[in-house]
Amino acid sequence: MKRYYRRAIQDLLSNRFLNSITVVTISLSILILSAFALFLANVGDLVNIWRQGVRMMVYLQPDLQRDRIPGLRAEIQNMYGVAEVSFIPKEAALERLRNQMQRQSSIIVGLDHNPLPDAFELRMIPTTQTGGKMETLAKELEQLPEVEEVEYGQQWIGRLTSVFNLFRLAGSALGALFFMAAVFIVANTIRLLIYARREEVEIMRLVGATDGFIKAPFYIEGMILGALGGVIGLGSLFLMYLAVSSNVEASLTGDSFTLRFLPPEMVGAILLGSIIVGWFGCYLSLKQFMKT
Amino acid sequence: MEADAKSAIIRIFHVFKSYGTKKALVDITLDILKNEFVLVTGPSGAGKTTLLKLLYLGEPASEGQILVDGINLSRIPRKRVPILRRKFGIIFQDYKLIPQKSVYENVALVLEAAGKRKRLIQKKVRSVLRTVNMEDKIDALPPSLSGGEQQRVAVARAVVGDPKIILADEPTGSLDEDSAKDIINLLKGFHTRGGTVIVATHDKDLIRKTRGRLVRLGMGQLMDSTERLSPAAEEQAG
């Protein structure tokens, strides 16, 4: 095995120009792909933060007696998808409104009675924060005789989820496309490398070398090129990330969001992917070449 | 014939080889015995090189059967072809050395391909390069060597794996007289140590000075096959 590695490294050094082109090609593909993955990961975080802020307000009938509140609260708490139920008495709601409308507080001061109803504020478990599931829960709540109205950001959640899913789908398609493009380019570059060394391969065959003996260094070269391309692509992305992260964090979000780099497992997966690109490119070229 | 069959290392039965409509070999039947020195001769286009190619499966025969050391070439699976080729040491007129690899690496390649250990490879390659008088150019690249030196490296590569048979295709074709003599002496040395040597040549000087069997081809056909015990006998063969 050591012998194959030695031969592969010798061959890599003796064809620097072609090998550099292959590495640059792979690193560009990896850079574009991982940049998109980084964008999706951060958008995903942002969407999750916004989703966690999603509340459902359940307004109760104005004439509902307060002694029925604990029973009703328990009933709602047991419904599917509900994580937390908080009772907001109408006095507290008015106080909150007053705080929110400090400049227009005269409107509230002039009221002779509290027009707001008692309400429950519901926080959902993350898996039910999709449009369809929230709608089902809202309908279930509205059928309770004690409930007057249910409010939540139906359209907003629906749109957000659709856009995010669209991005994810586009990301997967783009990933597949870049993977194929990189394999194709690597296959062609390796083909050029093999073609440049066809005489050597032919001589090896004549002296009794097996296909495995001939192919092993090419595979090792392909994987080294893939790994180098992956490291350079991800390294470039990390430098870009460092350069822009502070500006983006300050302008885009509040305290709860931090722009982050790709998680280690994704970095590992991308590196593995780039090695596979190198290997697969070799496989395609050698398969065709060794038949001749 | 029975004795011949037992000691034959190569058996060729009614072999034909065609390239499209052109017939390169026509109905060749020939036995080559162990430890024979065979000179295959004939004019250009007679089929000498084609015959050698069929033996190491550089190309398949169109018809007929060839047995090499008991292996039927028409039935050999692809993955066993390298094992067949290790039975041969092949010398080409154009040397076929890898230009980017040193003399040492070119010769060592045969043993590396056979999976030999590094220490054994070093020992054998140095020993065989000493035999062909190329030990002082062990690190040289082939393009920096003369034709005679390159052919000596090719001989070293052909013998280093201890093959049973040496196939040499016009080994002296592009060499001066002294270099040609060196190469022939190396081949004779291999023969003396028990190996089988098949040389395709139309070098009249080489034929005159070398003992062994003379196989003559013409227009792809076997014209005759004669044992020559002395150079004088060749004079008769013409």
Largest sheet of chain A: 4 strands, antiparallel
Number of strands of chain A: 4
End-to-end gap of chain A: 26 Å
Total DSSP E strands of chain B: 10
Task: Tell me, briefly, the overall form of chain A.
Answer: elongated
> How would you spell out the order of helices and strands of chain B?
HEEEHEEHEHHHEHEHEEH
Shape of chain B: globular
Task: Work out the helicity level of chain B.
Answer: 25-40%
Distance, first to last CA of chain B: 27 Å
How many helices of chain B? Answer: 9
Give the biggest sheet of chain B: 6 strands, mixed
Low-confidence stretches of chain A: none
Overview of the molecule:
The complex is a heterodimer of chains A (292) and B (238). With 292 residues, chain A is α+β, with helices and mostly antiparallel strands. Helix content of chain A is 72%, strand content 8%. In chain A, helix 2 runs antiparallel to helix 7. The relative contact order of chain A is 0.17. The model of chain A has no long low-confidence stretch (mean pLDDT 82). Chain B is of the alpha/beta class and 238 residues long. Helix content of chain B is 37%, strand content 28%. In chain B, a hairpin with a 2-residue loop joins strand 9 and strand 10. In chain B, helix 4 crosses helix 5. The longest helix of chain B is centred in the last third of the chain and has 16 residues. At the A-B interface, helix 8 of A face helix 3 and helix 4 of B.
